[in-house]
Amino acid sequence: MAVKKLRILALMHIGLVPPADATSREENTEWKTEFDVLSTLRGIGHEVMPLGIYDDLGVIRKAIDDWKPHVAFNLLEDFDGVPVFDMNVVSYLELLRIPYTGCNPRGLMLARDKALSKKILAYHRIAVPEFAVFPIGRVVRPSKRLTFPLIVKSLTKEASEGISQASVVDDADKLAERVRFIHRNLGTDAIVERYIEGREVYVGVMGDQRLRVLPAWEMLFTNMPPQLRRIATNRAKWSHAYQQKHGITSDEAKDLPPAVAERIPHLCRRIYRTLSLTGYARIDFRLDAAGRMHVLEANPNPQLAHGEDFADSAERGGLSYGDLLQAIINMALARRQA
Length: 338
Description:
- The protein is of the alpha+beta class.
- 36% of the residues lie in helices and 21% in strands.
- It has helices at 32-44, 58-67, 86-95, 105-112, 114-123, 172-186, 234-238, 240-246, 258-274, 309-316, 321-337; strands spanning 7-13, 47-53, 71-74, 131-134, 150-154, 168-169, 190-194, 199-206, 212-213, 217-221, 248-252, 280-287, 293-300.
- The radius of gyration is 20 Å and the shape is globular.
């Protein structure tokens, strides 16, 4: 793949900068995404500088002034430990007039707030589970609009943080207990949704004006005991031992009802544009037994590790890992020119 050599400033959490002497990564390495992106971009022929960020925007300004990169590859998921602050970093990049990969500030703001994004989608008649928000410090009173079972999540945390089998509750006492768990352990408000039994389906979307919808992907639970819920818990996503024990894998979604398969690309484009997303994103659904698609959330800038869902789906759709990263960079450069 012949490409123009670029200077790429890779922004990442300061604790996820791969060791300078790292030549490979294990599956359980915390910095596997960062290593995969850095090593692949260098393999393509680009000059890449990793920059660790925590709570200081000044290091970004200094790196841009000193090194003059062509583009910033944004791998940040938070700033100063706060997930919703990532939009402010992107706003800063816009003020510095440096092209950057991934989603714009407005899309990040809308999608990171799970309640706000659901309200917007519902206004546009896109099906989302009924929900309620329980702020920290408020008395937990079950909403009359919600019927059990319910699932309790953090309003702003990502990557299934705080989600376990105990997140699905069947009565008011368990609901109050789990909401307090989110408040106490994660320090965020809680969002409570109607639990939908069904298939966990993920769909990747890429683009700014012209959108490309990737093959639908599914989390599979091939050896899950019947008493456990088939949900994307923190352990189901990140514990290799738990995945092996319960046969949890992911692959292209098979045997989708024809009407669902036909509708997915159009629906995903609507969601992507409704939430002002750009760059690349993953839309998470639950598909119920009746074939109805319910939007759980939209994830701008999803994980880009090689061998994970987004990259695997892109490869099934005809984009190698290197081509995927180059396409993401090309979008950033084209956006700047526009």
